[in-house]
Each structure stands twice: as structure tokens, then as C-alpha cells.
Design goal:
Elements (H helix, E strand, L loop, with lengths): L10 E4 L5 H12 L11 E9 L4 E5 L12 H12 L5 E10 L12 H14 L4 E5 L4 E5 L19
Parallel strand pairs: 4-5
Antiparallel strand pairs: 1-6, 2-3, 2-4, 5-6
């Protein structure tokens, strides 16, 4: 038996320390929270994606009474990017959250399904995607790559049919 260790790297910064572009991206993620449809969980999530062409795309979570039919903010934004800007690369995604029933005091990280989708886009574009996780306490967790959030990503070149 061999024990191994996984290392991940991230940075914690104050919102005020972020670049102007990152602050705008985070503010877009916070603003889009208003369009979230979350009557069942009371938990709203907003995502803002910066593309290499300078465009930003936002998405918010959309729930449904048939719970599996809803979609997370990250996938709403990323699937729109894939549909409307298939040749653009995703540089950064900022994620923010708001609860209507409790106070969020830490970072809200994407769910496993969203991490997998983000990892697929990272592989597809053959370049890293920065991830900014905004906490209501004014702190931002910065990851240089989706792989830092999902070290055992599900991928294999043999799965793709050519």
C-alpha cells in the first residue's frame, strides 16, 4: 500500500486587493444573483465568466420543483459560452452566493457537476481557467485552475469518439 498526498494551491485576498477587472467580474456575479430563481432552497448563486475576447457572460441558478431539472449558475453561464462563443477561451469565472435563510460566512465552492463541466472546458480550450470564489465577508479565494478544485477530474482521451 502506498500513501500519496494531493497538494492544491490557492490565494486568499481581500476584495479591495483585487484588480479592477476582477472586481468588476465579482460585482457582475453579485448583481446576477437578483435573477436567480431559487424558491425551494432560498440559496442564490451568480457566476460571471470573462472570455479572451473581453466579453463577460453571467448566469444564475434556476431551480425547478422537479429538483434534478434545475441548473446551477456556473453551468448556465458556461453552456451559454459554449453555445454562443465556441471559439473563445474562458479566462476567469467569478462565483458569488446569497442565502435567504442563513448568513454565508465562507466561500461557496462549485458543486461536483459544475467542477466537472469547468474542467471539461479547461481541457477543451487547452488553457487554465482562473476561479474566483467570492465570500460575503469581503474575501476572495483565487484558484489558478479548475484542476486545483477537482484534482481527480474525470477525463480520458479514449472516451472521445473521433
Amino acid at each position: 500500500m502506498i500513501e500519496k498526498k494531493i497538494n492544491t494551491t490557492y490565494v486568499i485576498a481581500d476584495f479591495d486587493e483585487m484588480s479592477n477587472n476582477d472586481q468588476i467580474l465579482i460585482n457582475n456575479a453579485k448583481r446576477i444573483l437578483d435573477s436567480a430563481y431559487s424558491p425551494y432552497s432560498g440559496f442564490s448563486v451568480g457566476a460571471s465568466v470573462l472570455l479572451d475576447n473581453g466579453k463577460t457572460i453571467e448566469g444564475s441558478n434556476q431551480e425547478n420543483v422537479a429538483f434534478p431539472s434545475g441548473l446551477c449558475a456556473e453551468r448556465v453561464a458556461l453552456f451559454y459560452v459554449g453555445s454562443e462563443y465556441p471559439d473563445s477561451k474562458i479566462k476567469t469565472i467569478a462565483i458569488s452566493a446569497l442565502s435567504h435563510s442563513f448568513t454565508i460566512e465562507d466561500y461557496i465552492s462549485p458543486c461536483g457537476a459544475c467542477r466537472q463541466v469547468m474542467a471539461e472546458y479547461e481541457e477543451k480550450q487547452n488553457s487554465k481557467i482562473r476561479v474566483l470564489l467570492h465570500s460575503p465577508n469581503g474575501k476572495v479565494l483565487i484558484s489558478k485552475s479548475v484542476e486545483d478544485l477537482l484534482p481527480f477530474v474525470f477525463k480520458s482521451p479514449f472516451l472521445k469518439k473521433h
